[in-house]
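<discrete_fold_record>
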Amino acid sequence: MATVVIPLLMRDLTQGEARVEAPGRTVRDVIEALDERYPGDQARLCDGDALAGTLAVVIDGKLSRRGLFQRVVDESEIRFVPAIEGG
């Protein structure tokens, strides 16, 4: 299962857990599995069929441009971080 590092502001949904494991082949699958275990995660992480506009996802230390469609493996570490815009 992939390991998800839970942002501090979302730990109220995971009973304070900073790291949780969830199955899935894509980021979307992992979020759906998290939401089954910790209802409310999907609402904070997603905006319809996309990652919330205020967030970016980092897989194994690399920023993903594929968002919810990024593939993951059992050894993946997933982090949701604030999206940074500008130029």
Remarks:
- The two ends are 36 Å apart (CA to CA).
- The helical segments are 27-37, 41-45.
- The mean pLDDT is 93.
